[in-house]
Structure prediction request, 222 residues.
Amino acid sequence: MTTIAELELPAEEFALWETLDAMPTARFEIVKVVARDRDCAIPYLWAKCDDLPALEDALANDPSVEEATRLEELEGEALYRMEWTYQIRVLVHILVEEEGTVLNARGGEGRWRFRVLFPTRDSLSTTHEFCENADYSITVEQVYELDSARQGRFGLTEEQYETLTTALDLGFYEIPREIDMESLAAEFDISYQSVSERLRRGHRNFIRNGLGWGSLDEDTSE
Prediction:
């Protein structure tokens, strides 16, 4: 069964460790990554930093970066095409050996967090075994099976996904609203406060994983 897993790996065991160490407030978000071969990965990623020139100096001195090309620049953010050739065996294994797809990846605060779609649950198990044998300190944070893949794509819990979709179906987001918060709470037989919290956390996780940056430490629970 197709599986989505949220994984965490220390940056020092992956990529951009020296850059993140030199620029502790910098954040990276991968938007696309291609494994050129077993020794090289080419990610396209957004970098968010208050001092882009200093960030590019750090990238130039980072042993995990063979090449970094700035493609676009916005206010405090830049899109880069990079070539990674150092300590990326986990990523290459996922993409090449297990035919996985990286749905989302963020780097910051000395670590990387990935949301990966594996074609089978065994692919995830094989990746975890590979990391253990290679002494990588990978942590499996959450696992979603195919029946919950829609919420897993954006890091939503089952309760958050159900509440958001039900609210949409019942017209909670229409102008004017076709159902109020009290009636929505009654649909789930929970309190006003509980449905409010589900909506807020669901909105936050959806926006954070679909559009925004967010903190790597944010709570994604119900």
In short: Residues 3-145 form one domain. The radius of gyration is 19 Å. The mean pLDDT is 85. The first strand starts at residue 3 and ends at 10.
